[in-house]
Amino acid sequence: MSRIQLALNVADLDASIDFYRTMFDTEPHKVRAGYANFEITEPPLKLVLIEVPAHDRGHGVSGALNHLGIEESVSQSVAQHADRLQATGLIDSAETDAVCCYATQDKIWLHDPAGVPWEYYAITDDAPATIEPMRINQEDRADA
Fold first, then answer.
1. Residue 119 DSSP SS3
2. pTM attached to this predicted model
């Protein structure tokens, strides 16, 4: 099973959780300081909300996108995508046991021609709340 991941920057996490809870009629899967995610069944979507200061987030579409991803159910699927993409030169980096979004993940990163960051990833441990998140944003991934 795969599903698209959409990671958004939000200035008001609580208001955003309430909005998306109502919009998708589902409860968040995980809520931590400055972070929440939803595992939406229909349409199949992993929605990630990352709280950023309002002056960084701005209003409207500008500043909304943090990154995009494809969540795989197992690390073997990530490895298959890495094998397929390795010869193309599109992979910017590969990570094993990366701590991100309060979970441990295996992943690869690539960027589209306009610089939009994409990841293929699999969660290997839906880690406890004591693990600090690694905040991913376009500036951090631009030089990856």
1. strand
2. 0.81
